[in-house]
Amino acid sequence: MVSSTEYGSHTWELTLTVDHQHEDAEKEFRLQVTGDLHVGGLMLKLVEQIKIAQDWSDYAFWWEQKKRWLLKTHWTLDKCGVQADAKLIFTTQHKMLRLRLPNMKTVRLKVSFSSMVFRAVSDICKMLNIRRSEELSLLRQSEGTLKKKKKKDKNSKEPATDDILNLCNSPVSSGLPANPGLYSKTMTPVYDPVSGSPASSTITWFSDGSLTEQNCSILALSHPTCSPEMLAEMYQPRTLADKAKLNAGWLDSSRSLMEQGVLEDDQLLLRFKYYTFFDLNPKYDAVRINQIYEQARWAILLEEIDCTEEEMLIFAALQAYHVSKLSLSSETQDSTCESEVDEVEAALSNLEVTLEGGNKSNILEDITDIPKLADNLKLIRPKKLALKAVKTYWFVFRDTSISYFKNKESAQGEPIEKLNLKGCEVVPDVNVAAKKFGIKLLIPVADGMNEIYLRCDNEDQYARWMAACVLASKGRTMADSSYQPEVQKILSFLQMKNWTMSSQAASEPENVDMKPECFVSPRYTKKFKSKQLTARILEAHQNVSQMSLVEAKLRFIQAWQSLPEFGLSYYIVRFKGSKKDDVLGVSYNRLIRIDMATGDPITTWRFSNMKQWNVNWEIRQVAIEFDQNVSIAFTCLSADCKIIHEYIGGYIFLSTRSKDHNETLDEELFHKLTGGQE
Q1: Which InterPro entries match (predicted)?
Q2: Which of 17, 105, 478, 628 has the fewest CB atoms lying closer than 10 Å?
Q3: Is 157 inside a domain boundary?
């Protein structure tokens, strides 16, 4: 018989498992609890039962069946929904995690498995001395990208322990609060003249103590030792569907690692997810610039982004330059490098990619006079069943529109056609060696995209018209203060492509110790013999040989940003009302619907025209409304729709950043824009 006092107490038995390292000690405990006991009280009762003297401050309850943490210690068990059948594990919140960085180095560090991924990435970046953590996220390698590796080498092993950089003793790794100030803008840092990274005497200004000088060198220096065999073993996307697999594994930034099935000592990829590199500064961003450069380098080598043969040779020359420069690094004495940093300020102004873009300082200039362009250009309209029709017209570029006339004399009358470029796609069609300077325009119309080619006569004309088209596509005119920097950026890129073969390089390519197969994608390795590649890379090298190492990296990033496909993340979707699958490209300022079979853009929608977007979580459908009563809806087939929802919200969040706000981030706004109401 149960006594009346026991019957009326409403106590029940709860089984708790303690995740500790003491093998001899008991790990499972049964406690009598009541529903009004708060989580903090349950912790206290459990620790008293365990009777092991250790620091339990990092421990919390993990609810195994519900896949969630009980972190609100003032909540009662009733409020949490915990009943007698609940399996609660008392475990550490900070656990070891292996991260593969963009430079393919693996670091092992202690990360919070209970914080939202957004916060966890912020802590990781503090450890690695990477500013602007909001641009990065964690990616789980999808099964499709691992199959090739397994087929290629069934005996392949995980990287040896010696190859893993262990950062587990840092303050953040230990669960301690990180130093909020990463640097002081009033300091005058000292740099390594080769890498541009802070010298040993100033290394402690840039991190929370987890990075030694050697570790910082590993993260801030490029080590492009990649064999053709290694490239062959890595996953190389061949189609748009293959590229979509690369973006399927992004973790949800609004949930913790543990909630998403990540286990202790698992390996994830740390990557730049959002292609808006804000406030790049070689004074403070040695690691960040190098990791962006490495992500760009691998994307090109593995053909994750398409580029022409001419562009591939430029990328190869910049990489080969790194190797030769690094070989001299051990002989170079440490010295201050303020002048080197000043040299790359012009390149930096071109690297900042934001939704607004450009410097807004010359407001009076922008509103008092809107300049125009007027030139003879060739117009080409592709025809499906006929040869391309090429005709010369007198073109006038004003505001965000292009008008063309039969000749200069008739420019006072009505134009033959007026093209509004706002929201269009602008694609370069250039071959410097062949003196071909073309601009491909894909202009949105009711039933898809209107394709038009403009052909310029020379580099200067091309740079002026191309810059005007790029700005007009974003809704900005040539009066915008970013117009001239855009022209200079285009001319600079053309100059890199415009090389001539030196007599020494031409006559003695075999004397150069270079493995060209390490610097180009496998497609070009198959197309050319080794000596041919070496000679052509040396040709391209003539125009980059005078650059500093930091400038060479920035130029590489700049050239990457100039590629038509830069910043596009692909997903396979099914649009509402459609009977076939399409590819959706998500960029920093627009969405593009792409035909999966041909790869041609069908429609473009700008974020600047977006009124609202939401997700129907029951049917996993994303719905977006734009200006002029345009609305679209689609389901995502290659990934969870939450990933696309977060991408859109994330890019809009990043567009709100300002240098005036210093380093502080509105984390609440990020989750409001990206979290959804699932």
Answers
A1: Band_41_domain, FERM_2, FERM_central, FERM_CS, Kindlin/fermitin, Kindlin_2_N, PH-like_dom_sf, PH_domain
A2: 628
A3: no
Mean pLDDT over residues 277-297, rounded? 91
Query: What pLDDT was estimated at residue 546?
Result: 75
d(CA 453, CA 462): 12
pLDDT at res. 355? 39
DSSP H or E segment with residue 391? strand 389-398
Average pLDDT over residues 571-593: 94
**Residue where the block lists tokens 């285009």:** 490
What CATH number is given to the structural domain containing 580?
2.30.29.30
Residue 19, in any domain of the structure: yes
Beta bridge partners of 98: 108, 267
Whether 104 has a pLDDT exceeding 60, the answer reads yes
Host H or E run for residue 4: helix 4-7
Average pLDDT of the residues in 3-8: 48
pLDDT at position 344? 52
Do 174 and 127 form a contact (C-beta atoms < 8 A)?
no
Q: For position 178, what pLDDT does the model report?
A: 44
Residue type (1 letter), 549: L
Q: CA-CA distance, 498 to 513, in Å (whole number)?
A: 24
Give the E-state strand segments of 141-204 in sequence order: 164-166
- Report residue 498 as tokens: 């415009």
If we measure between CA atoms, which residue out of 269, 259, 291, 240 comes closest to residue 141? Answer: 269
Which pLDDT belongs to residue 362?
43
Domain limit, last residue, from 76, 92, 108: 92
Grouping H, G, I as helix, E, B as strand and the rest as coil, residue 393 is: strand
d(CA 565, CA 585): 9
pLDDT tens sequence across 107-120: 999 999 999 999 99
Report the DSSP beta bridge partners of residue 315.
none
Is the distance from CB of 245 to CB of 254 less than 8 angstroms? no
3-state helix, strand, coil in the chain (%, to 5): 35, 25, 40
Q: Are 136 and 271 in contact (CB under 8 A)?
A: yes
CA quadruple 514, 520, 525, 527: dihedral sign: negative
The Cβ of residue 93 has, within 10 Å, a number of other Cβ atoms equal to 19
pTM, two decimal places: 0.81
Here the CATH number for the domain that contains residue 63 is: 3.10.20.90
CA-to-CA distance for 317 and 556, rounded, in angstroms? 10
Contact 79, 195 (CB under 8 A): no
Domain final residue pick, 445, 478, 511: 478
